[in-house]
Amino acid sequence: xxxxxxxxxxxxxxxxxxxxxxxxxxxxxxxxxxxxxxxxxxxxxxxxxxxxxxxxxxxxxxxxxxxxxxxxxxxxxxxxxxxxxxxxxxxxxxxxxxxxxxxxxxxxxxxxxxxxxxxxxxxxxxxxxxxxxxxxxxxxxxxxxxxxxxxxxxxxxxxxxxxxxxxxxxxxxxxxxxxxxxxxxxxxxxxxxxxxxxxxxxxxxxxxxxxxxxxxxxxxxxxxxxxxxxxxxxxxxxxxxxxxxxxxxxxxxxxxxxxxxxxxxxxxxx
Length: 270
Ligand SMILES: [Mn+2]
Description:
With 270 residues, this protein is of the alpha/beta class. It is 29% helix and 16% strand. The model has no long low-confidence stretch (mean pLDDT 96).
């Protein structure tokens, strides 16, 4: 009986199947955690979502920015980017069921028995566990309500870049969503720089990964995240577990067994 957390799949369904063979996944005993970005850019987003949905109680999934983008397109709130590969899902006969299922998945998940939590990109440095749980519930409440359409209409954008407890309205919801699903670099005050990607050696000295911000209120948590392929799965910060190893870019797909933190990888060579 093991629990494996798996990095960003982005429609690379055959790599996922290779990885599950490699870890000898047994659906009757094991549980899979997915860090989000199940879809887009890779060739088989539809198969990937169907497969994970069918795992039922044997999976835990948090939404990533690409999953939210798919949901926005499904709500006619975005026309899509030129390099999107989401049409197969959007035209699938079971599209509505898949969209409904995705809307049920949270932005943050915490398992008190295993003592791990998971978000696609990260957490705002100011959030402790209770705050992160409450804010994730706040977004889920919107996604599962009549306000979902309006949420997606207002979701895109990089501001406000700093969390404050008194943020209101769409600014508040956008800021929460950006920290959970898009954050990489922050300034020392915890505000996000959402422009910058890439490796750590190229970043300006005023910026640091969100998990290196001083006095981070969630530094006591074991945090699993994806989204940042340039990290190559390495953080050098205790209790942070980066799992995006760039499968869709031809690198590898990673699983970490939570019980002993052993990592398993399959190559995604193109
Ligand atoms: Mn992402």
